[in-house]
Amino acid sequence: ASVSEPAQKCCTENIQPFLSSILEELMGPVSSGFMEVRSLFDKEVNEIIQDFQKTNDMTRLKENVDQLMTLPFNSVKMEPCYLKVNLLQELLQDLKNRFKVYHIDFVIQRTQNFMQELMENAVYTFEQLFSPSHQADSAKVATTIEKVKLRVLK
Known about the structure:
The chain is mainly alpha-helical. 83% of the residues lie in helices and 0% in strands. Helix 2 packs parallel to helix 6. The chain is elongated, with a radius of gyration of 22 Å. The mean pLDDT is 88. It comes from Falcunculus frontatus (Eastern shriketit).
């Protein structure tokens, strides 16, 4: 009881006024990283569509979809997504000094883990929605892939 009032006063005067600006600052790199994940998924699926339109090869299509499933674990392709979030290092350094925020690396690592999880969910959902259409007419496969991609991105 004796600590509650001073703690609330401290939070109200010294922390709460800065919370919205801090959140806004942090969301820039986080949003940028997640947009990069979305863009990478879109690019990879577009390449699958283009390859299928050129070859019309259902076996190769299956191989490409299987390869898409490994995308979340492909550190080279995911690296640009992760780099966007590394900008948090600088932003959090300032917060560390002002508000005694520690474990900056943990915040960045957790954000990158969420990005990988998002990509895992996207490719899994893509595979689940697209798999029944493998038996479809090959003339409609590219259109189906595009529709599934848009559904996943939605």
